[in-house]
Amino acid sequence: MENEINEAHQESKEDSVSKKRKIVVPGEFIVKGEDFLPGDGAKREGDNVIADRYGLAEIAGRMIKVIPLSGAYVPRRGNVVLGRIIDVLFNGWLVDVDSAGNAFLPIDESPRFINRNEMDQFLAIGDVLAAKIWSIKGRGIDLTLKGRGLGKLDGGFVFRINPSRVPRVIGREGSMITLIKEKTGTNITVGQNGWIWIKGDNLDNEIKARNAIEFVADKVHVDGLTDKMEQWFSN
């Protein structure tokens, strides 16, 4: 019984803490307790978890992370990014993904067989695509189209936000971006590099979706943002 009470107390404690977000600077105290686990942008110092960078401290259950509020995109293996074809080579495509160096999409990483003489019919210069980073070597990034939701993005338009705002725009378990999709009736693909693709039935819905995303990106440090987003759509 005592263990159950302690567990319930700990869960209640975590739930109450997880609702709080605050802007922190490197070295600033976030939470105390050995049960909490430091994630990206956080580290342990004794019994405390402190910030390791400037950003928005977020607590999800036992996991503590600090979401950067500014900064360039840092590629990571497994990230889904959006990019634009800037050159067609003999063995693949060169892709601009807004990182320090261009990315490379090998022809072998396309989801189907591509004739080398017809590569520009599959992806041509100027085409926009969603791809996944499968390898990072030095300054080189290799991409793949083998995966669900990856490939050329036809129609619609692309715009950019600061990559550090992407987690907030997506929301926990995709809650925020799902809300925006449902309220605007649009298809939206968000790249971890800050590129966002929107396609709807009409331009008005597409613009509304873009405005909603920019509203979220501008208020990344605000608590209760989902409720504010609901109010934004009702106005």
Count, helices: 6
Rg estimate, integer Å: 21 Å
* Helical coverage, percent range: 25-40%
- The CATH superfamily of the largest domain turns out to be K Homology domain, type 1
Large-scale geometry: globular
| Total count of domains | 3
Instruction: State the separation between the terminal residues, measured CA to CA.
Output: 50 Å
Commentary on this structure:
The protein has 235 residues and is an alpha+beta fold. It has three domains: 2-68, OB fold (Dihydrolipoamide Acetyltransferase, E2P), CATH 2.40.50.100; 80-152, Nucleic acid-binding proteins (OB fold (Dihydrolipoamide Acetyltransferase, E2P), Beta Barrel); 157-234, Ribosomal Protein S8, Chain: A, domain 1. The chain is 26% helix and 33% strand. The protein contains six helices and 16 strands. It has helices spanning 2-18, 119-122, 166-170, 175-184, 203-218, 225-234; strands at 22-24, 29-32, 37-38, 42-45, 48-51, 55-60, 63-68, 80-88, 92-96, 103-106, 128-137, 140-144, 151-152, 157-160, 187-190, 195-199. A five-stranded mixed beta barrel has the order 8-9-10-12-11. Strands 1-6-7-3 form a four-stranded mixed β-sheet. Helix 4 (175-184) runs antiparallel to helix 5 (203-218). The chain is globular.
Any key phrases for this structure?
6 helices; 4-stranded mixed β-sheet; alpha+beta; 33% strand; single chain; 5-stranded mixed barrel; 3 domains; OB fold (Dihydrolipoamide Acetyltransferase, E2P); Ribosomal Protein S8, Chain: A, domain 1
